[in-house]
């Protein structure tokens, strides 16, 4: 499949390249091209423009021939009202485009619109933690308890509970003292996704840390607690200084900013009802990122290249660390299967790693009731596709859109979205 993807004779390449010579979708920095854009000759791909490394000038590019029409068909079939897509080749952003609307008023979705990143936050957080490891502030396999000045807090400080999570349930289980950053980034700390999913709403350890995978947002919140309360760091400040600013992100934060308001994208739920954007005031490693399609494209390229991180730790980010043996991502605390239903799937550090027809790859999803995002990357050629949608109904189209952009990758879509009927052409 890898050779086929690069072979101009392949059906996929022929489909995407067909008619390229006659394409009227090519963007230009010239006034005439901007007039074409204003006139709508991009076929409703509002805000489509080249994204680039560190926001520097770069030759404009158009969407691959056929992509615009494919996105439109996918949105029509799923009912999704808004969707943005970015392509990265050789670690450089080659296209960022947006389709549809950003709110119930019908204002066009643009590549600079503020969209909720959801659990894509976890991927960025994993990269940041590796930067802290490289800086000597943390060790991946050192017990996190060694970095704290005392025991985990109980319920006596409601502000801490609200800021992080409810740690009181761990007081009588010394296994928490053996937890490491690697355990929490690979979702093998033994926790449910969040404490409020427990019958008594108290976080607890369900299995020996490091022994298996069970997705946990609260595991990431525990790691954030250690960074902030143990190391004295400010997560938002560190994310901006070490990652977002060097990557050239212009409108991204783990906390709502008032300057986002004119650009914000509201969401649409599974019934198509518009919902206002949640102005999140708490910094949460588990998922509070507000960002834009253009910014996330820059971040994806930055991380693919390994900027700000040495080669060994960049490899750790997406290296298969722990085999995943469950039938699906959710519910998190489900029985293990033997043999594993997806033997080529494993946990990375904030990412998921897989081995597919084009070799090693990685991905991360992120969604809530109105948001649907996915980030898929291939190590070969440092290639990636990023999809952000302000309409959760876009999810069934993700496999087809990713395949059109990258070829068959091997992403275990049925594991990520169990029971979902995926959209296919024809």
TrEMBL record:
<feature type="domain" description="Beta-lactamase-related">
    <location>
        <begin position="67"/>
        <end position="394"/>
    </location>
</feature>
<dbReference type="GO" id="GO:0008800">
    <property type="term" value="F:beta-lactamase activity"/>
</dbReference>
<dbReference type="InterPro" id="IPR001466">
    <property type="entry name" value="Beta-lactam-related"/>
</dbReference>
<keyword id="KW-0378">Hydrolase</keyword>
<dbReference type="InterPro" id="IPR006311">
    <property type="entry name" value="TAT_signal"/>
</dbReference>
<protein>
    <submittedName>
        <fullName>Beta-lactamase</fullName>
        <ecNumber>3.5.2.6</ecNumber>
    </submittedName>
</protein>
<dbReference type="Pfam" id="PF00144">
    <property type="entry name" value="Beta-lactamase"/>
</dbReference>
<dbReference type="InterPro" id="IPR012338">
    <property type="entry name" value="Beta-lactam/transpept-like"/>
</dbReference>
<dbReference type="InterPro" id="IPR050789">
    <property type="entry name" value="Diverse_Enzym_Activities"/>
</dbReference>
């Amino acid at each position: 499949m890898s050779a086929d993807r690069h072979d101009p004779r392949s059906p996929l390449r022929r489909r995407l390249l067909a008619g390229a010579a006659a394409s009227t979708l090519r963007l230009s920095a010239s006034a005439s091209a901007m007039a074409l854009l204003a006139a709508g000759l991009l076929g409703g791909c509002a805000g489509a423009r080249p994204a680039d490394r560190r926001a520097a000038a770069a030759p404009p590019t158009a969407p691959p021939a056929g992509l615009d029409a494919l996105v439109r068909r996918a949105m029509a079939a799923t009912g999704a009202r808004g969707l943005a897509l970015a392509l990265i080749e050789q670690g450089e952003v080659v296209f960022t485009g947006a389709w549809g609307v950003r709110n119930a008023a019908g204002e066009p979705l643009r590549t600079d619109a503020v969209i909720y990143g959801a659990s894509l936050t976890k991927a960025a957080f994993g990269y940041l933690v590796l930067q802290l490891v490289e800086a000597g502030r943390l060790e991946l396999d050192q017990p996190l308890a060694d970095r704290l000045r005392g025991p985990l807090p109980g319920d006596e400080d409601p502000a801490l509970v609200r800021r992080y999570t409810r740690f009181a349930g761990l007081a009588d289980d010394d296994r928490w003292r053996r937890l490491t950053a690697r355990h929490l980034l690979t979702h093998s700390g033994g926790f449910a996704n969040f404490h409020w999913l427990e019958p008594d709403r108290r976080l607890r350890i369900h299995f020996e840390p490091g022994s298996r995978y069970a997705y946990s947002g609260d595991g990431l919140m525990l790691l954030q607690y250690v960074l902030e309360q143990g190391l004295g760091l400010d997560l938002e400040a560190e994310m901006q200084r070490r990652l977002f600013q060097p990557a050239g992100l212009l409108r991204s934060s783990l906390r709502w900013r008032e300057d986002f308001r004119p650009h914000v994208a509201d969401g649409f739920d599974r019934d198509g009802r518009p919902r206002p954007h949640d102005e999140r005031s708490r910094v949460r490693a588990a998922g509070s990122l507000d960002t834009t399609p253009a910014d996330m494209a820059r971040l994806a390229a930055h991380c693919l290249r390994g900027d700000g991180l040495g080669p060994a730790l960049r490899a750790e980010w997406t290296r298969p660390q722990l085999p995943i043996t469950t039938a699906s991502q959710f519910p998190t605390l489900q029985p293990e299967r033997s043999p594993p239903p997806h033997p080529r799937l494993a946990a990375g550090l904030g990412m998921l790693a897989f081995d597919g027809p084009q070799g090693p790859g990685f991905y991360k999803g992120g969604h809530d009731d109105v948001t649907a995002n996915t980030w898929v990357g291939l190590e070969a050629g440092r290639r990636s596709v990023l999809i952000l949608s302000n309409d959760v109904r876009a999810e069934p189209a993700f496999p087809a859109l990713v395949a059109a952009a990258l070829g068959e990758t091997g992403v275990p879509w049925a594991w990520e979205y169990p029971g979902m009927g995926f959209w296919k052409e024809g």
